[in-house]
């Protein structure tokens, strides 16, 4: 399990503060830590169209906007692959064994 999956799993279980580095020795504001981790999850959302702008992230970190409602389970990344385009230019050329004889 990767870091993002681990933190998202903690988020879904309501144990988000377990992701905070224990070297802080409990000397931190829990509300700020929770906000920071949630914004971090939002910024790495698998669907890039659902990620926040820098302005949105900063507003939340400054407690000027409400936290986003993230799924309790990490969304599965979906990749869209565009099929190769077929050129409408020159047709493919074929050769015949009869040519050049």
TrEMBL record:
Chain residue ranges for the region called Disordered: 82-101
Listed Gene3D superfamilies: Transferase(Phosphotransferase) domain 1 (1.10.510.10)
Keyword field: ATP-binding, Nucleotide-binding
Polar residues bias: start-end ranges: 84-101
GO-annotated molecular function: ATP binding
InterPro entries in the cross-refs: Kinase-like_dom_sf, L-type_Lectin-RKs
Protein name: Uncharacterized protein
Organism expressing this protein natively: Rubus argutus
